[in-house]
Specification:
Elements: H1 3-6, E1 12-16, E2 26-30, E3 33-38, H2 46-50, E4 53-58, H3 63-71, E5 77-80, E6 84-87, E7 103-106, H4 121-127, H5 134-145, E8 151-156, H6 165-177, E9 182-187, H7 191-197, E10 202-203, H8 214-222, E11 226-228, H9 232-237, H10 239-254, E12 258-260, H11 276-284, H12 289-297, E13 312-317, H13 329-336, E14 340-343, E15 347-349
Parallel strand pairs: 3-4, 4-5, 6-7, 6-8, 8-9, 9-10, 10-11, 11-12
Antiparallel strand pairs: 1-2, 1-15, 2-13, 13-14
Bound molecules: zinc ion.
Zinc ion (ZN) binds near residues 37, 39, 59 and 264.
InterPro entries: Metal_Hydrolase, Metallo-dep_Hydrolase
Protein name: Imidazolonepropionase
Organism: Agromyces flavus
Length: about 350
């Protein structure tokens, strides 16, 4: 097996065309790469683009502002959630960093006041047509009217109240009825479990509060839930938390779970572009180099890569790590961190 085969079906050995800046330079061509968790109202993406990120998914912004940013010509291509949906007084409604207009606080749909004890999916579906679900439907419709591709929910029990299960299920059914997936920030004890139980499609951070048991992880993977990695912020902030998150990702991946590369770009200091710390942590979590490439190139939240494509490709110059070094987190990270965006027409098979 050649080194390029070991990189999986998305990688191709190429040479740059003979005109241009680096005529004849050889390297690896990959699809356009996506950071699936960014905040463009908190950080400009120019340096991320220079570092090989062609497309981003904004997961929390003022819906009008992010719609305007997404319409701007040029890279990165942008998909977005619009506002954070949360409980009344819930995270991040009181955070100093939250952009103005970026939070929608939802009252409970649990009108019988049983705290959700008797909730089930069927009742949630009934509620979707009930007056109590009005604010939930209005919030989902608002994000959709601004062009959102995904609905973002915050479930952070460390930082405030969280949506009860009936209300979360009402959000999920309202979003699904409109063809939109739901992505949740789950933080605090049993918040990842709440999101998994309620049918949330994506966790915007690999679970980091606690070790999830194998049965729960298997259930998430079998349900087709995807996890956006965001491991670099934990490596930066707290080794113990990073270890929990990496262990959860390792077992999720082993169970067949879909991992999406994402950094939470805009959350403090993070190297822009393909982030070497994020890549190295994914390799440490058991992802093969081909899996890391798949996590970077996944077109979520769209089903196809049509939105990231538009005649561009990723070029990683030089030889990829050889077969032995492909298991070395730092070697894979150093190689992928040199990724650049080029017009696809400048690359030819070699
Ligand atoms: Zn975020």
């Amino acid at each position: 097996m050649s080194a390029t085969d070991a990189l999986g079906p998305l990688a191709r050995r190429v040479r740059r065309s003979l005109n241009g800046d680096h005529p004849g330079e050889t390297g690896t061509m990959l699809p356009p790469l996506v950071d699936h968790h960014v905040h463009l109202q908190l950080a400009t993406a120019d340096d991320a683009v220079a570092g090989g990120i062609a497309a981003v998914v904004d997961l929390g912004a003022d819906p009008g502002a992010i719609a305007g940013i997404a319409r701007t010509e040029g890279l990165p291509h942008v998909r977005y959630a619009g506002a954070f949906l949360t409980a009344i007084g819930g995270y991040p409604s009181d955070r100093p960093w939250r952009p103005g207009g970026s939070v929608r606080e939802l009252p409970s749909v649990d009108g019988d006041g049983d705290g959700g004890a008797r909730a089930d999916a069927e009742r949630a579906r009934e509620r979707a047509h009930h007056a109590l679900a009005g604010p939930v439907e209005a919030a989902v419709d608002e994000q959709r009217s601004f062009g959102a591709s995904v609905i973002k929910v915050a479930l952070n029990s460390v930082a405030g109240p969280v949506l009860d299960r009936p209300t979360l299920e009402a959000v999920v059914s309202a979003a699904h009825a409109r063809g939109l997936p739901v992505a949740a920030h789950a933080e605090g004890e049993r918040m990842a479990q709440l999101a998994i139980d309620a049918g949330v499609d994506v966790l915007v951070h690999a679970p980091f509060t606690e070790r999830l048991d194998d049965a729960l992880i298997s259930r998430a993977a079998a349900a087709g839930q995807a996890w956006i990695s965001t491991l670099a912020i934990h490596v930066r902030d707290d080794d113990a938390v990073a270890a929990i998150a990496i262990d959860n990702v390792r077992r999720f991946r082993a169970a067949g779970g879909r991992v999406l590369y994402g950094t939470d770009f805009g959350n403090g200091e993070l190297a822009p572009g393909v982030n070497a710390v994020e890549v190295a942590a994914l390799v440490r979590a058991g992802l093969a180099a081909s899996d890391v490439i798949a996590a970077l190139a996944d077109p979520w939240p769209d089903a196809t890569g049509a939105w990231t494509d538009a005649g561009i490709a990723t070029f990683v110059p030089g030889a990829p790590p050889d077969a032995e070094r492909l298991a070395d987190p730092d070697a894979v990270a150093a190689w992928l961190a040199t990724a650049r965006i080029l017009p696809a027409e400048e690359l030819e098979p070699s």
